[in-house]
Write a structure and sequence with these properties.
Elements lengths: L1 E3 L9 E3 L11 H10 L1 H4 L3 E5 L5 H8 L4 E6 L2 H14 L5 E5 L2 H5 L6 E6 L8 H7 L3 E12 L10 E9 L2 E8 L4
Parallel strand pairs: 3-4, 3-6, 4-5, 6-7
Antiparallel strand pairs: 1-2, 7-9, 8-9
Length: 181
């Protein structure tokens, strides 16, 4: 399944989808609503695309002016697709691809991000790993969690839910890290 970059410098370009049933690509309708909501957060941002799948969220961010995106994905098929998509869009200088489990990578990184996309597989939401991602947010940073509409949402001291949107069987939670946290 191919994915279309919605807007920005790569708007209209087609990239390869995740190619595996172990990931769940976010629909174009939800991605469009997401990026319309966070439009002011992207320009110049350091972005983490955790559980990256095809890399569509990170690549859409680069298309819309993000400074750099770090992709983290453990599935080997999805890793090859991310590499191909990075090459097709010629954004290797603006991206880092970590081929690892998000949980194990978290123990090794000390990077911090303005914007984090957490899109774990719906069949394995990994709430403790998602909660650990909050520590990587810069003050006033934003994290967007994609989760099953009726699923649990993690919470953490110093991070507040600023919005929650439902799209049928999928939902997006928007978290903001408090400035003094």
């Amino acid at each position: 399944m191919n994915v279309r970059i919605i807007a920005g410098r790569f708007g209209g370009r087609i990239i390869e989808g995740s190619g595996t049933t172990r990931t769940h690509p976010m629909s174009e309708r939800i991605r469009n609503a997401l990026f319309n909501k966070i439009a002011t957060e992207i320009k110049g941002a350091e972005v983490l695309d955790a559980f990256a799948g095809s890399g569509a969220l990170g690549l859409e961010s680069l298309s819309r002016g993000a400074h750099h995106v770090t992709f983290v994905e453990k599935d080997r098929i999805a890793q090859k697709i991310i590499d191909n998509n990075i090459a097709v869009l010629n954004v290797s200088g603006q991206s880092t691809h970590i081929k690892a489990n998000v949980s194990s990578w978290l123990n090794k990184t000390n990077e911090h991000y303005d914007l984090i996309f957490a899109d774990p597989p719906f069949h394995d939401p990994q709430l403790s790993t998602v909660s650990d991602l909050f520590a990587l947010l810069k003050p006033n940073g934003l994290m967007v969690l994609s989760y099953p509409g009726r699923g649990e949402m993690p919470t953490e001291t110093g991070v507040v839910v600023v919005d929650n949107r439902s799209y049928g069987n999928a939902a997006l939670a928007f978290y903001r890290k408090e400035e003094d946290a």
